[in-house]
Design goal:
Rossmann fold, binds S-adenosylmethionine, about 20% strand, three-stranded antiparallel beta sheet, 2 domains, about 290 residues, seven-stranded mixed beta sheet, alpha/beta
Amino acid sequence: MAINVRSSRFNAGGRRLSSRRHARSRHRIALGFPRAGDPIAIIFPRWVTIRRSGAPAQCQDRPRQREAVITGVEETAARLTWVRAEQVRFEQEALRDDALADAYDAATGSMAPPVDPAAGAALRFLAASIGARSVVEIGTGYGASGLWLLRGMARDGILTTMDSDAVHLDHARAVFSRAGFGAGRARLIRGTAAEVLPRLTDGGYDLVFVDAEPRSYPAFLDEALRLLRPGGMVVLHGVLTGPSGPDGPLRAPDPAETAVREVIQGIREDEGFIPLLLPIGEGLLTAIRP
Ligand SMILES: C[S@@+](CC[C@H](N)C(=O)[O-])C[C@H]1O[C@@H](n2cnc3c(N)ncnc32)[C@H](O)[C@@H]1O
């Protein structure tokens, strides 16, 4: 995707700038430090659509030249465009990887939506930042998040991942193996979290990643606290997805949303945790446990 940003000769009111003012703002924009009020023209040579799943950003060759004169509030839109453009570059980079692309291809449009590539990169980073050697994942799906985690974990680290769906697990196993992570690095367990988690060892894990059944997040958080060593990290995905139905006074409370909010509040208010809410993809709530 190519997005061009250049200085505009016109301000928000459509008035032509003096050559001197235009030259100054052009200089700032060229250096990458536009100031509030600098008129900016953004040219979109191609229109870009991003699928909800975070799967490959598809550039559709719908030639559509748009030019906008942006100042003040609208400048924020320009900044967001740059931020999104950087994210798209990350996504495209990730999807050059055959195994990851395979996981995203299989998951797109399925009932097991994968984490956004930006959220995947955050998972890889978080696992690497604590040198994770033992990680539990609830909700394997087609293997995208598991592969991101494996890529961040220590070389001898083991991912224990569970899913109630055998087809998802089989696909994830093939994805891991294609990426060079065999049975010695990934333990895939079929079963519901309620069945599998109680079989895992107390305090035996560095990181627990949760990406299934938001209604059960409060229960999963309790289990994660049992499984994590002191100083271990819990990461919950999809905490910023927002209401599933239209808003309004008559909207019935959504049990999934209520459960997610309960977990966010619990982590925020518990002084023992060191929390971090990452507004990436559908939202990652991460916390270091006491
Ligand atoms: C959102 S998808 C996971 C996507 C995956 N983390 C990724 O990024 O590729 C949720 C997965 O959890 C599984 N699942 C749903 N409820 C579950 C439960 N109670 N226990 C275990 N797995 C469950 C579904 O079969 C589905 O594959």
